[in-house]
């Protein structure tokens, strides 16, 4: 009979620990770590010989897509929307 309130209290305590950690600046550390790893990854990518070709192809595809959208007069819609 005493175990249900104890389990509830334990669950609430364990679930609130990550929230308080993020509220106390843990979120900033996580974001900083993610940005540092993204920057490292981007630096490694740009060292590749074909990186410029990949970036140029992506930019050309975006430009083509925008041109087609402006010529068609239609509003871009997501797959989920009719």
Offer a concise description of the structure:
Keywords: Signal. The chain has 82 residues and is mainly alpha-helical.
Could you explain how this protein is built, in words?
The chain is an all-alpha fold. The chain has a domain at 26-69. The protein contains two helices and no strands. The chain has helices spanning 3-47, 51-72. It is elongated, with a radius of gyration of 24 Å. The termini are far apart.
Give the SSE layout.
Elements: H1 3-47, H2 51-72
Keywords: Signal
Signal peptide: 1-23
Key traits:
single chain; 82 residues; mainly alpha; 0% strand; elongated; signal
Strand content: under 5%
Helical segment tally? 2
Number of strands: 0
The secondary structure category is mainly alpha
Oligomer: single chain
SSE arrangement, N to C = HH
The largest β sheet comes out as: none
- Using only C-alpha atoms, the radius of gyration works out to 24 Å
Helix content: over 70%
């Amino acid at each position: 009979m005493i175990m249900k309130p104890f389990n509830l209290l334990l669950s609430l305590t364990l679930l609130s620990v990550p929230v308080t950690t993020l509220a106390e600046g843990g979120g900033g550390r996580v974001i900083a770590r993610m940005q540092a790893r993204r920057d490292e990854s981007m630096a490694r990518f740009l060292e590749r010989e074909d990186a410029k070709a990949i970036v140029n192809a992506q930019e050309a595809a975006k430009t083509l897509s925008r041109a087609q959208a402006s010529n068609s007069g239609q509003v871009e819609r997501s797959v989920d929307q009719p």
